[in-house]
Here is the input.
Amino acid sequence: AQSVAQPEDQVNVAEGNPLTVKCTYSVSGNPYLFWYVQYPNRGLQFLLKYITGDNLVKGSYGFEAEFNKSQTSFHLKKPSALVSDSALYFCAVRDPTNAGKSTFGDGTTLTVKP
Amino acid sequence: EAEVAQSPRYKITEKSQAVAFWCDPISGHATLYWYRQILGQGPELLVQFQDESVVDDSQLPKDRFSAERLKGVDSTLKIQPAELGDSAMYLCASSSQSQNTEAFFGQGTRLTVV
Here is the structure.
């Protein structure tokens, strides 16, 4: 069975500092990996994805993520955090051999303090 | 910009009553998902449609939940009878037919069962 782990419920960083939100996954085949962001009482918004190719992918709002196959990780990063980045972040894995079913992590709350 | 539309935004119902949610995906999106999100957790897939066909409903409590997408466009999720434990956010999402594309989420329906 496929699964996603986000080991940190909460990440706190100061504005201007780099941020990392961690994600590890388990899937039988080659994974498709996604990051989404959720603001209060809203649906999820897509940030970026890894399908194939370059292990470093860039997405919306200056976010990027690095796919590491040996460590089965897909950590979300940003060089300089903004207060407006404060939100709930979800990592998701999709197994293309399993009817494209997506599994989400339980989320990490990012708080950026001025 | 095209959006996934959901209604209602909020619903309060008494236990044992019936409740229904509606979703209109982005035009042209063949895949439609219904997720349930309990506070503090990631979205859990309830049912996935490809056009009008159910691709995955393994996590749908079929004794009380039903979903349909009769013409392969909009969809309805029904709960009858509602239970206290059904209180959650119900999210609808859609994506194009390709499995490497991201999902677009609606704003969700917040259900409270009293």
Remarks:
- Chain A is about 0% helix and 55% strand.
- Chain A has a mean pLDDT of 93.
- The longest strand of chain A covers residues 87-95.
